[in-house]
Amino acid sequence: MFQKDAKVLLFHVEKTKQRQIADLCRKLKIESIIVPKRQYGESLGALAGIPGIPRKNIVCDQTELSGEMLVFSGIDSEALDVFLGKYRESGIEPVALKAVVTPHNIFWNVPVLFEELVREYKSLQ
After folding, report:
1. pTM tops 0.70, yes or no
2. What is the signed CA dihedral for 55, 63, 117, 59, rounded to 10 degrees?
3. d(CA 6, CA 79)
4. 3-state secondary structure string across 62-86
5. 37 and 61 in contact (C-beta within 8 Å)?
6. C-alpha triplet 2, 37, 101: angle, nearest 5°
């Protein structure tokens, strides 16, 4: 079901929820990566370890994100639906901001994606 390069990147996620998501990922054979704030200047593609997108070792010194965010890489829409279903079944508290690494956002850094997701989330409220 899940590709061998399937990953979930966690940004500013509360510690208990981090453990719950990591446990779920282990069960589904998905790699979970807790991204520290100092790496927020890197591109999504580099953080996800996508071949051909090197890290630039850009240290981010901005303040922490104002909310939690999950980013999926190497996961198609069918597998994403499975993951999200299992996430709900597990009773893990929701994370409002979620994205998938795409050709459009692969070179964005974390603050840029976060701002875009916040804009989209607010427009849907």
Report:
1. yes
2. -10
3. 9
4. CCCCCCCEEEEECCCHHHHHHHHHH
5. no
6. 30
